[in-house]
Amino acid sequence: MMGTDPSSTSIEVKVHPRRDSPARRPLPSPPNPPAVDDHNFSLFRRWFPWLVPTFVVANIVIFIVTMYINDCPKHSFTGSSSCVASFLGRFSFQPLKENPLLGPSSSTLGKMGALEVDKVVHKHQVWRLFSCIWLHGGVVHVLANMLSLVFIGIRLEQEFGFVRIGFLYVISGFGGSLLSALFLPEGISVGASGALFGLLGGMLSELLINWTIYANKLAALLTLIVIVVINLAVGILPHVDNFAHIGGFVSGFLLGFIFLIRPQFKWVSSRHRRRNSSSAHTGPPVRYKHKPYQYALWVISFVVLIAGFVTGLVLLLRSVNLNDHCSWCHYLSCVPTSKWSCKAQQFLCESTQMGNQLNITCLSNGKSDVFPLSNATSTDAQQQICSQLCNS
After folding, report:
1. In the chain, which segments carry CATH 1.20.1540.10?
2. Distance spanning both ends of the chain, measured CA to CA
3. Is 245 among the catalytic positions?
4. Tens of pLDDT, residues 282-294
5. Residue 170 phi/psi, 5° resolution?
6. Is 281 labeled as catalytic in the residue annotation?
7. According to CATH, what is the number of the domain 50-264+290-337?
8. Which residues form a coiled coil (predicted)?
9. Global confidence as pTM
10. Which of 172, 189, 193, 269 is catalytic?
11. Rounded (10°) angle between helices 139-160 and 193-209
12. Taking the CB of residue 75, how many other CB atoms lie within 10 A of it?
């Protein structure tokens, strides 16, 4: 067995390089990959917003077409002098007592596709659940909704693109119309408010499902909740369809978990580093694009949304009034006070034919007038005359 003798003299051997070869120097260590500041690059693609402005233009154009068809001077039974802004000609507005929002008559809105539950159920015009979200009751109505759409929708389209926001807007509007039809079967309903509340609901669920990528989370959450609560509180005033607001908000909230889901921050950051770094030693890649709770919320929201829409349509087509099964739900849309009543205003009139003329009398105030029979043959025309007499 060989070994070393600790008492023996140690010999140091040095090897000198050849004179004809340069001295070998230690190789410099490879430079560290440049540090990536996760806060100095765009996490997600920014989209150019064109769909929301298109929606705004479409709503305004449809309102102008509605006013053209309305033609107050021609179709007003009380004469053109009663039309508001008569200098606009056929674009002038209905009398303020009939429509204080500076807009068309209810019969014109019905022709254009307003939500009328009776026609949806008995004439199978389900398309009115979609068409009503593009109509507005007046200038005040359309301007208020379009300003809200610009401030809310453009930001969302920049973040998520036109496809997701387009579906979110339209489907939320349908959800608002559906809930409105189930709780408010009388009268007509128009407006984009349900779709707008859907965008607010989508913003809330987007904040929750993408919680990890936001700074100042709590402040953003509280601000959004306050905005939603204030807008829903306004809906308890009379003549405001708060069920459309609630239906649109709930639909948008569920759709946000489906359409507005983002990859987790670590996955995006890891991919950015690997794409922009020259070194392969950037750490192990993140395996999953989304977190488990994001997948779970996606599935749950999809199932609940489909089940809700199917159930709501079945109940609607069976003429079910949900107020009969919920004694307190009507307070969600209107809370009666000493200043106003939440009961729908009913206009009852009596008509008597006298030759080629029709005498129509409002039973609530006793006012009557005579109209040519040719102008008051349809049921819609008689209802419009009755409304004008009772409001005069």
Report:
1. 50-264+290-337
2. 124
3. yes
4. 555 666 677 888 8
5. -70, -45
6. no
7. 1.20.1540.10
8. none
9. 0.77
10. 193
11. 30
12. 19
